[in-house]
Amino acid sequence: MSQPARPRLAIIDIARGVAIVAMAIYHLCWDLSYYRFIPVDVGYDPGWVAFARSILFAFMVLVGVGLVLGHGDGMRWRAFWKRWLFIAGGAGLITLGTWFTFPDSFVYFGVLHAIALTSLLALPFLFTPLWLTGLVAIAVIGLHFSFANPLFNEKLFSWLGFWEVPPPANDLVPVFPWLGVVLLGVLAMRLVRGTRLEARLAASQPRTIVARVLGWMGRWSLVIYLVHQPLLLAVIVPLSMAMGTQETSRDMDFLNSCQASCEESGTTAALCAIYCQCGLEGVKRDDLWEPVFTGLVSAADQAKLDANNRQCSALIYPDLNSDQSESSGK
Q: What is the pTM of this model?
């Protein structure tokens, strides 16, 4: 039978607010990195990766906590499905939007996708024995770190999380281990339910403006999650285009990488500079930035890269060009 919901715990809303602010900060810095306003690569820097994982951990724990707060006394199906459809719809919008903007690394199973699926999978554990909830949580997390198979490198299966090398995606939050993290949130809140600690948490109310704002953000965290990136990009992208930050930094990255690789082969620095400048002009001319930086090279792209390499090699090794001419004339 459906039961009325207990009063909201303001402290949980504040925690969600802190998490959404942290995520907005991370995404702001990721955008600034991607559009080359800052030199650090936020997507791969160990410190930033750890920061992103800690934010995700907080969100997924709070998913489990929220399930217990909303439905631990009995399923409120109307409220559950209303929220679930909103999350699933948001996940679909993110997939569609990133498909058009980042077709080679679009988000096919990101944070909202994971929240939608794990919310369903976690429902039985609102009512199972506590020991079973904890055991399954540990098993789900443990399997992620103890099993891997090349099969899960493919997008079709990667959402499960047992890959050896994940496929390219701007956000990928697999069921294993994150379902286990959601179950940890379920377990923690069920242990608190009906105790003096819950009463103390319920009595704790925000007294400062900052706490009230964070609480408000926590209550609207899903909406904020959906709109904050488009708003950030609406400012950063035009600014990057006006300042030329991405193009300038991208060119320098290409030239530095090419120069280092070329000199390692024993070619002089001066000849390498000529070769790499030629290569840069060819990449720009043939619009090959995406395959160069992602490594996803089609047969047509590879043909263009090979032709450009031969042309640039002939600049620094003239004999190569004459040999090719003689060969083609035979």
A: 0.77
Q: What is the pLDDT of residues 18-52, one digit of tens each?
A: 999 999 999 999 989 888 788 788 888 889 999 99
Residue in this structure with the two tokens 């702001």, named with its chain if needed: 28
Q: Residue 198: enclosing H or E segment and its boundaries?
A: helix 196-203
Pair (189, 137) in one structural domain: yes
Q: pLDDT tens digits, residue range 73-103?
A: 899 999 999 999 999 999 999 999 889 877 8
What is the CB neighbour count within 10 angstroms for residue 34? Answer: 18
Q: Are 222 and 87 in contact (CB under 8 A)?
A: yes
Cα 184 to Cα 63: distance, rounded to the nearest angstrom = 10
Phi, psi of 115 (to 5 degrees): -65, -40
Distance between CA atoms of residues 63 and 12, nearest Å: 11
92 domain-assigned: yes
Q: Which of residues 188, 213, 241 is at a domain's end?
A: 241
Q: Do 83 and 221 touch, CB atoms closer than 8 A?
A: no
Token readout for 16 is: 């969600």
